[in-house]
């Protein structure tokens, strides 16, 4: 039995050696995996830093954008005030234009009326000239009769 026990121990020893080799292989794989995980961890840590830097940059940009918007709003309010002033002036100019237009219409009406009166005067004058010519002809005829 001692031989059988030794053989059993040898067989167990060989099996344990096989298990050891497999465990060594598994341990080597685990070491490789650990190295990969360390590399992944380093990359993720770098990415975390990059994201944190990105977040800080975005916060700074957000604040700067908000300040720009506030300045732009102030400028737009100022521009709108200028537009209001321009519209007010345009309203006044339009009112003055309407008054001038109405005044010109009245002047034109008066000129047309004056033109009608002038034409009537010219017709009467032409009639008077005709009458004067007729009177002169009669006077001349009367003077001829008186001389004869």
Describe, in plain words, how this protein is organized in 3D.
With 148 residues, this protein is an all-alpha fold. 99% of the residues lie in helices and 0% in strands. It is built from 1 helix and no strands. The longest helix has 146 residues, at 2-147. The chain is rod-shaped.
Briefly summarize what is shown.
The protein has one helix and no strands. With 148 residues, it is an all-alpha fold.
Beta-strand residue fraction: under 5%
Mean pLDDT: 90
The profile of the biggest β sheet is: none
Helicity range:
over 70%
Low-pLDDT regions? none
* Number of alpha- plus pi-helical segments: 1
> What is the rounded Rg?
60 Å
Distance N to C terminus: 204 Å
* Secondary-structure content class: mainly alpha
Question: How are helices and strands ordered from N to C?
Answer: H
Q: How would the global form be characterised? A: rod-shaped
Please provide the count of β strands.
0
